[in-house]
Design goal:
With 85 residues, the protein is an alpha+beta fold. Helices cover 62% and strands 13% of the residues. The protein is built from four helices and three strands; from the N terminus they run αβααββα. Strands 1-3-2 form a three-stranded antiparallel beta sheet. Helix 2 packs across helix 3 (45-54). The longest helix has 25 residues, at 2-26. The chain is globular, with a radius of gyration of 16 Å. The two termini are 29 Å apart. The model has no long low-confidence stretch (mean pLDDT 90).
Length: 85
Amino acid sequence: MSELSSEMRALREDMAAMRDAMTRLVEPVEYMTPKQTAEYLDVSLDALQEWRNERRGPKFIQSSSRFVRYRRADVDAWAEENLVN
């Protein structure tokens, strides 16, 4: 029974990855600045910076200390994962 459960989990993960890949093909990727992301999440820029430093917020792209961007899809996925019932 546990083999079937692990196979089902793997299939779900594969399907989610394929769905994400298809979405990226159809929809352009939208990038947001830290300011836009903070406004979108209704948090302060300081909170967003702290999350980046602690690696506990949404995924982000950082090519230098002055260039940070967030993909809207990653921000939405992070928010969805952190919903509290």
